[in-house]
Design goal:
Blueprint lengths: L6 H19 L8 E2 H7 L5 H4 L7 H13 L1 H7 L1 H26 L9 E2 L4 H14 L5 E5 L12 E5 L2 H12 L4 H18 L4 H5 L11 H54 L1
Antiparallel strand pairs: 1-2, 3-4
Length: about 270
């Protein structure tokens, strides 16, 4: 499997990996995470709210984030690159502000435990994961026994999983790497994703779309796609019409044969009389 029909996902993964590597090589990783008391309250560095989701600060998070985005590319294939890119931008704006705000509220209540907001787009990934959970059906399910095989008279004891479970496990592991800040970000991203889908967010934001040229969709390309769709539908209609005509002709021939046999019977009775 590749990034076919998922250009936004390909650009997101390449950009995330490139920026993370560049931040490490240039030794500027300290600009991408947030200490609530120092960076926001003391020095008023509010620009960090827009910067902290641009990259990760360690290789493990980069790996699991890239794997998660790659697994979630099916959402872009179902929606199209324009809608998917628009959703990423809208969700990133909400997740840029809400998780640090929640951390700022919880910090004085938890002895400064909720003071560190880690770098990385984990909230955005979980917003996409919420869409994946809602729109992509599972293909199969399987069971994992938690004990030895029970006798036939006892019910099965174990876990029921699906083919989507490993994608949730990868994202869940990503959320635990920088606990508790990453957990807060993941929870907010999940809620934002469901709020976007459930119509809780303003309708103007949900309906907003990026210009087509920004995701590589020109007017000529869209017209070619519609023309191909029109031709495909016309071909299907023509095939259906031919099939219907052949079926009607066969039924007519069968009816003629039934009428001919009936006429023969009537003629035989007439000759006998």
């Amino acid at each position: 499997m590749t990034f076919t029909n998922a250009p936004v996902t390909r650009l997101t993964v390449l950009g995330l990996v490139s920026v993370s590597i560049a931040a490490s090589m240039l030794d500027v990783k300290h600009y991408f995470y947030i200490h609530i008391d120092t960076h926001l309250w003391r020095y008023r560095q509010f620009w960090r709210l827009l910067a902290y989701q641009l990259c990760y600060t360690n290789s493990a998070e980069v790996l699991f984030a890239a794997m998660s985005l790659y697994n979630l590319r099916v959402v872009e294939r179902m929606w199209g690159p324009r809608k998917y890119a628009s959703f990423l931008i809208v969700s990133s704006l909400f997740t840029a502000v809400i998780p640090p705000l929640i951390m700022a509220v919880l910090r004085p209540l938890s002895a400064a435990l909720f003071n560190y907001m880690p770098a990385g787009p984990t909230p955005v990934i979980f917003a996409v994961l919420a869409q994946f959970y809602a729109v992509v059906p599972h293909t199969y399910k399987y069971r994992v026994a938690t004990s030895q095989a029970p006798p036939t008279s006892e019910p099965f004891s174990g876990l029921t999983l699906s083919d989507k479970s490993y994608q949730y496990l990868i994202a869940f592991h990503l959320a635990l790497l920088q606990w508790p800040g990453s957990v807060v970000g993941a929870a907010v991203g999940w809620l934002v994703g469901h709020a976007w889908r459930g119509g809780i967010l303003p309708a103007t934001l949900v309906a907003w779309r990026l210009p087509a040229w920004m995701v590589g969709l020109s007017a000529q390309r869209r017209s070619a796609e519609f023309e191909g769709l029109r031709r495909r539908l016309e071909g299907e209609n023509a095939a259906a019409a031919v099939s219907t005509g052949v079926q009607g002709q066969a039924e007519g021939q069968q009816a003629d044969r039934r009428r001919t046999m009936g006429q023969q019977i009537v003629d035989q009775f007439r000759e006998a009389l």
